[in-house]
Amino acid sequence: xxxxxxxxxxxxxxxxxxxxxxxxxxxxxxxxxxxxxxxxxxxxxxxxxxxxxxxxxxxxxxxxxxxxxxxxxxxxxxxxxxxxxxxxxxxxxxxxxxxxxxxxxxxxxxxxxxxxxxxxxxxxxxxxxxxxxxxxxxxxxxxxxxxxxxxxxxxxxxxxxxxxxxxxxxxxxxxxxxxxxxxxxxxxxxxxxxxxxxxxxxxxxxxxxxxxxxxxxxxxxxxxxxxxxxxxxxxxxxxxxxxxxxxxxxxxxxxxxxxxxxxxxxxxxxxxxxxxxxxxxxxxxxxxxxxxxxxxxxxxxxxxxxxxxxxxxxxxxxxxxxxx
Length: 324
What we know:
By secondary structure, the protein is an alpha/beta fold. It folds into two domains: 32-125 and 251-317, Bordetella uptake gene, domain 1 (D-Maltodextrin-Binding Protein, domain 2, 3-Layer(aba) Sandwich); 129-241, 3-Layer(aba) Sandwich (D-Maltodextrin-Binding Protein, domain 2), CATH 3.40.190.10. Helix content is 45%, strand content 19%. The protein has helices spanning 4-28, 45-61, 76-83, 97-105, 113-116, 141-150, 165-177, 189-198, 210-214, 262-276, 279-287, 297-317, and strands at 34-38, 65-69, 91-96, 117-127, 129-133, 156-159, 182-185, 203-206, 218-223, 249-257, 291-292. A six-stranded mixed β-sheet has the order 2-1-3-10-4-11, with helices on both faces. The protein has a five-stranded mixed β-sheet with strand order 7-6-8-5-9. Helix 2 (45-61) crosses helix 10. The protein is globular. The chain starts with a helix and ends in a 7-residue tail after the last helix. The relative contact order is 0.18.
């Protein structure tokens, strides 16, 4: 005869049995080397950030971490490889803000970070700094706006390519400040900077602005942070000039393929977060112009969602069209 007590006993036993594999995974993971795919060339911010965290995570996890650069398709090639990997926690993606830009520009042709992956945690965060050439004559944000309104469409603003974050932020600037600028796309910041310094273009949002500003080669006139930025304390955020909600961080962070066991994600996040809090990590990130991320899933998921809302809104409101 089946009694209520026997049903409850069997149910409790069943639940305990189901929890055993999760407990075993949490205790055993990782049992072999972990590979992190960086979908950008060596030496860039995403690559550098992973390598800063690499040794600390290896110590925390007790396993080697192999970093592999798989560049191509603006970060899409490496992301596709990780998306197709076994969701066991041993193949990870170093995602970055270009992935959200790509998904907003071409939603059918790119990975969706929150659909295809689970966040482990941000590794680093930065800002975009609006810089003006010395030749333009713009020394302040207000001065730039006056010049732009006096010469509609004559001031040129560079970007790292059509549909890039730099391009979309430039469109935000035009809309928020009520000015008309001519967009000039380049293949990255490196080829654009000489033209900015020489005055062949007038403005550009840069992630590598500090040495140019310190050397007096360009004028820094604002940044996309939500408050003072430690590396450029003399510059105000663009929100201080009346550009409401003009906050656009640069970021990068670790993700795992969708379906990765929560216990593995939690273990990886714990190791990343602890590593990012060390003095050595803080110094290394600050040296590259970044602040360490929190290394936990929640803030990263929110940042990705915020990015997608922001960039899709810019594209819709500016009626931007891109080749498919």
